[in-house]
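Problem: given the chain below (202 residues), write out its structure.
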Amino acid sequence: MPSLHPAVFIAVVATFLIVICGGDSVAPTIEPPQTGEPPQTEPAEVTQEPPAPPLWRYVNSGWVSPLDESANAFARELRADVITSSEELERFNRTIISKRTVGTGTTLNRAEFPGSVLLVAYLLWLPVQGDPLSVVGLNIKGNRAIVDLEIDEDAQGREYPYLFAPMTMVTVDRDEFPAAGPVVFEFRLGDDLLVTLSDTLE
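Solution.
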């Protein structure tokens, strides 16, 4: 029997082992790591609607002096009025003296009766400076309307050495209120000043 050279024998054995092992081998697969969390998605864009415009429109503001002899020079008193016609507006203008008002021809013509309701408020008494009194809120619930006022304690402008009443006037469409009156108006300034009026808006 012929003998095999050692080198040839080793090569045959190695080839045999490679065939046996390679035939049954399976390529390993790598699984992605499991984190236990759901796949992340891009957050949906949230569109914000612009705030609704206020129910009121500016008409006039500034400083007035009421022609009321009972007005105490040391008083801190809130007064208000609800005006629904040209006659009532003329009557109101006869009860006060306008000292320093900033309304323009455009703003003063915004009230168109009988389709408008004028809301007026003024505060006795303050040193004249800037234009401090304004309407900042109006909430209508049925036959009740709450008018929120604000006084700017840091009003800008030159201060004058005399006392008058800061005044603000706005107009509201008549359709914003109930068709059948009367409507109760609450004018509020801070937590301590409140004026309540009732008007049929006719």
